[in-house]
Amino acid sequence: MIKVAPSILSANPLILENEVKKVEEAGADYIHIDVMDGHYVPNITYGPNIIKYLKKITNITLDVHLMITPVKHNLKSFIDAGSDIISFHPEADNESEEIIKMIKNSDCKCGIAIHPKIDVRDIMKYLPLVDMVIIMTVTPGFGGQKFMEEQTTKISEIKKIKNENNFNFEIEVDGGINNITSKLCIEKGAEVLVAGSYIFNHPVDEYKKLIKSLK
Ligand code: DX5
Ligand code: ZN
What we know:
- The model has no long low-confidence stretch (mean pLDDT 98).
- The chain has an eight-stranded parallel β-sheet with strand order 1-8-7-6-5-4-3-2.
- Strand 2 (30-36), helix 2 (48-57) and strand 3 (61-67) form a beta-alpha-beta unit.
- It is of the alpha/beta class.
- Helices cover 35% and strands 20% of the residues.
- The protein starts with a strand and ends with a helix.
- 42% of the residues are buried.
- It has helices at residues 16-25, 48-57, 72-80, 96-104, 120-123, 153-165, 181-188, 197-200, 207-214; strands at residues 3-6, 30-36, 61-67, 85-88, 109-114, 132-136, 170-174, 192-195.
- Helix 2 (48-57) packs parallel to helix 3 (72-80) and helix 3 (72-80) packs parallel to helix 4 (96-104).
- It contains nine helices and eight strands.
């Protein structure tokens, strides 16, 4: 069963509570929260406070995608805020093993995200340790970008490694997901699909239909 994680990057921040409740009612499995620091990526979004308040209004899994560098310096505040899954980009910090340990020693699941410029072989050593692997199909930083189809070979590669080794992580694909690109990802082994603009750039009464069209 495919899971859908709406990314609130494309939601209206002034009515965020309502947006989250609406996608939850519409069948969302996770809420994907894109944390950007204006440094690892050119854009700036939110800090741990948003997670703390989302935690008070929903029980849905908060899937936090850190696009920050360094990572460890700010990690504890994202754990303490109530994140359920924290993913980070290993090349953004030279203490990735320590970061994975810190996350896993808390109540939180740990993921790594693969930037389009990073090869699977460069993150291989983390695969036995993590609960989620995010394959990026856009350059991190902005919603609404074009899907990079060539990145989907990484989905098959990761799926193969997962099956051969009986690893437990979920395979999430992030960027440019719509009802067409979702099919390509599912065929290759995607298990969780992040979708921002495809959902939130449409009227609220279409959320249910849109989420269903991805599964
Ligand atoms: C991009 C973010 C994505 C983004 C996806 O840096 O990691 O999660 O919100 O947005 P869409 O679905 O519009 O490509
Ligand atoms: Zn993301």
